[in-house]
């Protein structure tokens, strides 16, 4: 027995992160009741994006061209390479900092239980890039999770093998945060990673 078009739409919307049955149902009804023109635009944009957006051959970020605009830019500092887990992490760093180097997007993190190893993260591509000799610093910006820390350790070893200095994003007490409200793990990590106060 085939499901109705409405059921198929609701089921299709459930592929989005954090969208369960009720949310998908609410979205489907909204599109059909009040936003049919928007639904048409959404379907066209989604179909085009899925067909035309691939990955940059240099950094593995999403790109419509073989090499993305960031990697192709002559104004970026090729001596610095920042490794991030996802395109969303790259965008966050780009928007929040003055970083002008290049990126390498892992598209995940090491997780042997999920079958994600060095090959799935494109680390052979990263090793080849480090071997070119242009990169002097690999900034490791993986998340402070168990898998993120294991990935960071692997990346640091890979960088040292190619004579590249690895560095890691600082983790700890957030700016404007109060110690009594910081979780124990974060506070412990911040305390253990404390640095000397400069003059």
Automatic annotation (TrEMBL):
Belongs to the RecR family. Keywords: DNA damage, DNA recombination, DNA repair, Metal-binding, Zinc, Zinc-finger. A zinc finger (C4-type) spans 56-71. Pfam families: RecR_C, RecR_HhH, RecR_ZnF, Toprim_4. GO terms for biological process: DNA recombination; DNA repair. NCBIfam families: recR. It comes from Lysobacter soli. This is Recombination protein RecR. GO terms for molecular function: DNA binding; zinc ion binding. InterPro entries: DNA_Rcmb_RecR (IPR000093), Rcmb_RecR (IPR023627), Rcmb_RecR_Znf (IPR015967), TOPRIM_dom (IPR006171), TOPRIM_RecR (IPR034137). The lineage of its organism: Bacteria, Pseudomonadati, Pseudomonadota, Gammaproteobacteria, Lysobacterales. Signal peptide: none annotated.
